[in-house]
Fold each of these.
Amino acid sequence: MKKMIIVFAAILSMGSYAQNQRFVYEYKFVKDSTARDETKSELMFLDTAPKGSKFYSHEKYVSDSLREERIKIGGRNFSGINFDFVPFVIEKSYPDYNTVFYGSLDMDQYKVSDGRVQNWKIVSDKAKIGDIEVQKATLDFSGRKWIAWFAPDIPIQDGPYKFHGLPGLIIKIEDQTQSHSFTLKETKKLSKNKEWQSESEKKNSKQFINVTPEKYKKQFLESRNDPAKGLKEMASGSNKIMLVNESGKPLDISEVIREREKNAKAANAKDNNILELDLLQ
């Protein structure tokens, strides 16, 4: 990782500053509240362009690219590709900051428009992160209390994940339990030739199920309670499915379902400290 850029040579207008910039954040999180010493870390990109921003995992970007290359040449073997990454993608449109969450549950992909108002409380506390002058703000959001440090001299009202609306770029934000934190580590200028594409544009928009946050929460809880529901429905449908392994050998669908349920429930038990805690409530 390159050293954090701590001095911004020029303060530009919000419109010009938002064009083709990449803000690289380190996301640290604790998945299991009973094992708080086990912290995971992942690099996340906030790519900004005149029409909006996209927030996503660096590992997801690499994994998706490799998988798509193999699919194009008819490959079925995805060994060596890392699938252990933060899976969601967040998009915000400018200047209204309409926020859209893209994520998967079971065998379906969802598109969730999140119009919740973020009622920030800006306080007088000021500090420095590196050489960046920052100011403190607090927020109750998604079942957690958040503390943010934003840079008034960087005139873009955006930040990691769904966070936005402060009068300056969010440099660091952390929840009160210190379970989830995002810290700016680097900035890059992206090529003007790099066309910003939303997930809906990049993929077939029909792949996504458009739901409200309330409907997504219902589906989220159903998926945790019955993690093999999609496979069961496919197996019991009129069009029978056949699953094969990397060598093309048919698999026993009943055994696959049992294994999916076992593994998913074990994983969920250790994933009890999710970012949006109110999804479990």
Note: The chain has six helices and twelve strands.
Amino acid sequence: MNAKHKTVFVAFSSQKGGVGKSTFTTLVASTMHYRLGYNVAVFDADFPQHSLMKMKDRDLKMVMDNEALKKLAYKQFTTINKKAYSIMQHKADSVLDAAREFINASSVPVDVIFFDLPGTVNTPGILKALAGMHHIFTPITADRVVMESTLVFSQLLQNIIMKQGETSIESINLFWNQVDGRESTPLYNVYDNLIDELGLSLMRSRIKNSTRFRKESEVNSKTIFRSTLIPPDERLMKACQLDLFINEFLKIIKL
């Protein structure tokens, strides 16, 4: 491994469940690894559900059972000439050490490691794991409970962990998810102003609401959105503005 090559540690993290942490980890990791040419890996430390480990098993079975997806996967892997990215299960309290061991043992430079972390700060080792990230991305929705939980969580990271000095965190980035075009724009403006007043960073990209975020590939489907083996279909990405999000994401992490 090239000792000068910096591997970026990224977490989609929130204290509120169901806002899309694991989904965005999968979508961005798959886009970067399979379509954009980066080498990524994922550590699933979200005990006890370990949803990404389970998703990979389901994805593999789905591809093997679906002829269209099997052909798509075969064409993809022969074209990019590399394997699927690794998803490894680990506990939060030692996941940073495990990631560094993985980087040192890797035969190719690893550009980004994504961490799927538990959604509660009471989990042993979670604050240490968060402090070891370079960039944290937190999805938010226009829901009072989600916003209150997220703002408290983000302020904890920014005002306590980052100011203590013993941290790798370079940025904490909130972004709007599940944006419904029918919702009141002034509502978002109020929240935008509140986030700005608290000194938190808000991404310009807004992810439009789509049922695709809650669906995995189906038996007869010919297109992919959320998968650990194949990147999301480009038309589906544009429909929910995920393409714009990933462009901004790459600028933030400087890749």
Note: The first strand starts at residue 8 and ends at 12.
